[in-house]
Design goal:
Blueprint lengths: L18 E4 L5 E6 L5 E5 L11 E6 L2 H13 L3 E6 L4 H4 L10 E6 L6 H16 L2
Antiparallel strand pairs: 1-2, 2-3, 3-4, 4-6, 5-6
Length: 132
């Protein structure tokens, strides 16, 4: 395995642009699917709420792949959480509900890190993991 995309399930027909789904706790989650199949998401704030971190959801096939992706995330000093795909709001409702992966690694992005920069850094961390 030399490519982070190879641990993900088959590509999902990505909706164009941004879409919104209900959040579990409050408000709505705004999301967008990248060409690599990763999903960028952010919970829109309601008045008076604290801002929530932006996240990337990496769809994975099995626990071993989830552990490998989590290791890449933690090597960056970021937080990761592995969840069943259906437990993630971006896969529970809306255009991706029919394509929920078995597992998804939720990556909390630090403030100031864009989705494209995060994907590039994760890709580099993945290559360092598979080519020591």
């Amino acid at each position: 395995m030399t490519n982070l995309a190879r641990v993900a399930p088959a590509p999902v027909p990505a909706p164009r642009g941004f879409f919104s789904v209900p959040a579990r706790h409050a408000g709505r989650v705004v999301a967008r699917v990248s060409s690599s199949g990763l999903v960028w998401a952010w919970r829109a704030m309601r008045k008076g709420d604290l801002p929530s971190p932006r996240c990337l959801f990496v769809p994975v096939r099995n626990p071993a792949h989830a552990a490998a992706v989590s290791a890449c995330v933690k090597a960056q000093g970021w937080q990761a959480q592995t969840k069943p795909g259906t437990a993630c709001a971006v896969y529970r409702a809306g255009p991706l509900s029919a394509f929920a992966p078995p597992l998804a690694v939720k990556v909390r992005l630090p403030a100031g890190i864009s989705s494209s920069v995060a994907r590039a850094q994760l890709r580099a961390a993945w290559l360092n993991l598979v080519r020591p």
